[in-house]
Amino acid sequence: MLAYYVHDLDPFVFHITENIGPRWYGLAYVLAFLAAYLVFRWESRCGYADLPEPRVGDFISGVALFGVIVGGRLGYAIFYKPEMLTHPLSILRVWEGGMASHGGMMGIFLFALFYARRNGYKWTNLGDNLVVAAPIGLFLGRCANFINGELYGRATNVSWAMQFPKELIDNPDEAARAVSVCSKIDNSLVTPDAIIAAVRHQPAVKDALRSILTPRHPSQLYEAFFEGVVLFLILWFVRTRMRQPNGFLIGLFFVCYAIFRIICEYFREPDATMIGAFTRGQFLSFFLIAIGLAFIIFSKVRPTYPKKMSI
Predict the structure, then answer these.
(1) Which of 10, 219, 227, 291 has its CA 20 to 30 A from that of 300?
(2) Contact 305, 275 (CB under 8 A)
(3) How would DSSP label each residue in 145-209?
């Protein structure tokens, strides 16, 4: 039997107290916004973006707050946890986790539309330049998901499979077995959360869980690679090597992201009720493909270009 890696990474970058300190998930968001700022500023300097370079910081700040955070959180509540809508204050508790990439995307483009109309820019131009940086944020977010041991994959026996202690939270039978075994090692380990924390510093607990936890695909890393690295390379190549009208990159981003998400979801444990034969993420991604194709077609039918690149 293979000795699979038992996930034992700490979600905190460092600890101020036992449960207080900066988390990798929060750092991922900060780095994503910084990357978006740097990429967008470069695009503005090179003439791809109509937005002047001095205004990039204000625009990215609005995207971060109203697009990513508000849109992502509302998307999570609407698409994955509708019961939160009956307790609106729970939506504000972002520190408890729960963001939806589909909601974040919708939030970003609604904010871009508002910003463009308010300031006299073409929103498709703003969107085209945003999506080039978006995969960097997706990559960092998926890496943070992996560090947190959440959104893990489906059961498998491939040699690179991993075991994620957080599955105890979703599997009462496994949790009961784990408590029975681990409480004999340390009598304080009587809850799944206590066991998950103990894995990081008690080798005996980690070894005990090897025979209890299910080997799974590290689907967070699959998504980080395809939705992050591969998608960024595609968009960067088109942005810098091909002259395409405003809106084309938005469409290409939606289509490619949706395809990669649909594929990767086959390796990810569903985290919401299935919709027919498809996961919630796959179902929503089909709409992104339709939206993306509409952007591509419209960009070709009525082409406009960045002001500095117009003929």
Answers:
(1) 227
(2) no
(3) HHHHT-S-B-B---TT-EE-TTHHHH-HHHHHHHHHHHHHH-TT--SHHHHHHHTTT-HHHHHHH
Residue boundaries of the structural domains of the chain? 5-156+216-309, 165-212
Q: Is the dihedral of CA 186, 188, 191, 195 positive or negative?
A: negative
pLDDT digits (tens, 9 = 90+) for 33-68: 999 999 999 999 999 999 999 999 999 998 888 777
Spatial strand order of the sheet with 162-163 comes to 5-6, 162-163, 215-216
Bridge partners of 162, per DSSP, are 5, 216
Q: Say how far apart CA 56 and CA 159 lie, in whole Å.
A: 45
Backbone angles phi, psi at 210, to 5 degrees: -60, -35
Q: What is the CA radius of gyration of the chain?
A: 21
Residue 311 pLDDT exceeds 60:
no
Whether 59 and 47 have beta carbons less than 8 Å apart is answered as no
Amino acid in position 308: K
pTM over 0.85: yes
Token pair for residue 42? 């470069």
Question: What are the tokens at 295?
Answer: 């952007």
Residue 278 burial by CB count (10 A; 0-12/13-18/19+): exposed, middle or buried?
middle
How many Å separate Cα 134 from the centre of its chain? 10
Listed in sequence order, the residues at least 6 apart from 19 whose beta carbon sits closer than 8 Å to its beta carbon are none
Q: Tell me, rounded to whole angstroms, the distance of Cα 302 from its chain centroid.
A: 32
